[in-house]
Design a protein that fits this description.
alpha/beta; 16 helices
């Protein structure tokens, strides 16, 4: 007798009971279909989005290290494997490392190597005020920081005075271990950041930009500071070196496409725009952007000649580099209007804890801008935009000076007819706010004058200042004391 095999037709379950929310906001048993794992990636609209688009969304949600909520970012990494893979690099995009060691530093030392490779901005803060580090501490620090091999931007703040002997070799090793490094920023806390040390240790073939804040005066001559070096973007601020060292620094790179020199309010060495024009002329065929703040006293009116800078597209100059009366607008325009200049920025900014004056833009400035725009329209049709940097405090104005942005609006209307756009920074006060303040000041002044007149008409004399013994013969003082003592007795 043959055995019969009975095959049970078993099918995968297509329903599942689980706890879920109800319409009343409470938990209850929910009957829902089971998703096939092979189709899970295609069931959710989010899963259909490519990684590139999701990355853009995440960059909007976590735009920069300064505003990113790391707790929220970490919570997102726990939601699914895909978001964990995409968000984790954003969490470790910027790493702040402190020297000498702190509690934060000790936590960072436990970071995995995969997390180190996600770092793109490495900030090292080395205090010149306190703390000491042993040789073993520097060895440990070097071994840890050289593993951030994918870093693209390195910022060093402080340490050049107290720890310069150990810090500079560390920087040299970091540059050698970061083949993708493009941007280097050196900020001093006290002193000790010197150009000869920069030349000696900054040797990176991949470096594109070098920013130095706080260059102290060196006793060494700047010989040997010439190229070749790879960076093409140079930015200097709080700069104390002399003209010879500055010339050597500008001519150090093979080619310079962007040059920024902030106002040198603390530099006692003489430099003017004409000198900068000569130094920068070696890069005249490649230099695309120049920005120079105000320079030494006595350098006003000595203009830079940019007539041969054929690649220059953007130029920013301080108002205080020009003569006080601004009478030489024809000569100024002929020199600063490069053949292919597109944007000219006129800056009224001042530094060292000061701000612009409300009367800085007066009749002379308005007239100079009008004439400059007319000359540019007739000789340099490439110029499309004039930008004014003017940002005074909302107080400190005088009514008789008027509203300075009225002048800029008149220039703006004239420029529009010349196919040139004039823009300026946001006013400290709107015209309505300024008028309200002016009205309030006038009413207060009239009320005060009226009170004074009324008091004089009624014969009321203003209060006389209280008579005191201050500044009189000292014997009067002792006499007064004796009289008081006698009355007390």
């Amino acid at each position: 007798m043959e055995k019969k095999t009975i095959a049970w037709a078993s099918s995968k379950p297509n329903r599942q009971l689980h706890l879920g929310p109800s319409v009343r906001g409470t938990l209850e048993i929910v009957d829902s279909p089971i998703h096939d794992g092979s189709k899970a990636l295609h069931d959710s609209p989010f899963d259909k989005l490519p990684d590139e688009l999701v990355q853009v969304i995440l960059e909007v949600a976590f735009p920069s290290p300064e505003v990113t909520d790391y707790r929220s970012a970490y919570a997102v990494t726990l939601s699914c494997r895909r978001l964990h893979r995409l968000v984790t690099p954003l969490i470790y995009h910027r790493i702040d490392y402190q020297l000498p060691f702190s509690k934060l530093t000790n936590k960072l030392m436990r970071m995995s190597q995969s997390s180190q490779l996600n770092c793109r901005e490495l900030h090292i803060e080395c205090s010149d005020m306190y703390g000491t580090m042993s040789d073993e501490d520097w060895v440990t620090t070097t071994a840890f920081l050289t593993k951030f091999s994918k870093t693209r931007s390195l910022i060093i703040h402080g340490g050049f005075t107290r720890h310069g002997t150990e810090l500079w070799p560390l920087i040299c090793k970091l540059l050698a271990s970061m083949p993708s490094l493009q941007h280097l920023t050196l900020n001093r806390q006290y002193w000790g950041l010197l150009l000869p040390s920069v030349k000696k240790y900054i040797q990176s073939l991949s470096l594109k930009s070098l920013k130095i804040h706080g260059v102290s005066k060196s006793r060494e001559r700047p010989r040997g500071l010439y190229g070749p070096t790879s960076f093409s973007d140079l930015e200097l601020s709080d700069y104390e070196e002399n003209a010879e060292a500055t010339r050597a620094l500008i001519r150090w790179p093979r080619k310079l496409t962007r040059f920024h020199f902030e106002s040198s309010y603390n530099n006692h060495h003489y430099m003017d725009l004409t000198m900068f024009g000569l130094w920068l002329s070696v890069h005249k065929e490649v230099l695309q952007e120049i920005s120079i703040g105000y320079l030494s006293s006595g350098s006003k009116g000595k203009m830079i000649d940019l007539s041969q800078f054929t690649a220059l597209k953007s130029l920013t100059l301080s108002r205080y580099l020009f003569s006080d009366d601004l009478k030489y607008y024809i000569e100024d325009a002929a020199l600063v209007l490069a053949p292919n200049l597109e944007t000219f920025t006129w800056s009224f900014s001042v530094y060292d804890q000061h701000c612009e004056s409300w009367d800085a833009i007066g009749e002379a400035e308005e007239s100079w801008l009008q004439q400059f725009a007319r000359i540019a329209a007739s000789t340099r049709p490439s110029l499309k935009r004039i930008h004014i940097i003017f940002d005074p405090d909302y107080w400190g104005y005088r009514i008789e000076d008027g509203y300075p942005w009225d002048r800029l609006d008149r220039v703006k209307d004239s420029c529009r007819q010349l196919n040139i756009e004039l823009t300026y920074t946001k006013p400290a006060l709107t015209k309505k706010e300024w008028l309200d303040h002016v009205t309030e000041i006038q009413m207060t002044s009239e009320l005060r004058i009226g009170e004074q007149r009324g008091g004089n008409e009624e014969g009321i004399q203003p209060n006389e200042p209280e008579k005191t013994l201050e500044g009189r013969d000292i014997r009067d003082y002792f006499a007064a004391i004796r009289g008081t003592q006698l009355r007390d007795v």
